[in-house]
Amino acid sequence: MKFRILSVAVFSAMAALAAGPSIAQSGAATIVKTEPGRATIAEAVRATATVKAVDKASRLVTLEGPQGNQFVVQAGDQVRNFDQIKIGDVVVVEYLEALTLELKRGTGQTRERTERESATRAQPGQAPGAAAGRQVTVIADVIAVDPAKQTVRLRGPKRTVDLKVRDPEQFKLVKVGDQVEATFTEAVAIAVEPAPAAKK
Description:
The chain is mainly β and 200 residues long. It has one domain (2-193). It has helices at residues 2-18, 22-26, 168-173, and strands spanning 28-35, 38-55, 60-64, 70-74, 90-104, 112-121, 129-146, 151-155, 160-164, 179-193. Strands 1, 2, 3, 4, 5, 6, 7, 8, 9 and 10 form a ten-stranded antiparallel β-sheet that branches. The longest helix is centred in the N-terminal third of the chain and has 17 residues, at 2-18. Residues 1-26 have low confidence and may be disordered.
């Protein structure tokens, strides 16, 4: 559960930084890759904010984004060396989210959902920071194909969903009885960097 504690703070930060053009200044990249029977979309974002206040008792940090938008995040236990964070520090948040769908034929795998999590944190004496990642993989059966709507019905281990396949060439490859493996990956890293030198 370490990832979820950290990600709540990160998602709050990313939402606040994304309000307005500030996120574009910090950098965002979207990558789409397709090949027959496989498609991946990934987005990476790097954003910075300045520490405006620190509540050590509750581990709350008030941050200000590039456009002056302020928000509060809670630094979970993963943020080691929290006591070193001070007003004026620059926090760098890097976030990656990717989804890969791969068509599987004749594998006969069991419908299942697996989840892996990992977390690391700064060593004692280093600048405060933490990183966490999560990967969820789902195997689903193709139980229906609708050419008129260009949708595929997938039955996973817990629910059934209709997936719109926008690429006609990819859609032609899918048949009832196939399986789809969907892998969702997200990773976040938070680090405190030295405050920039004051402009003269």
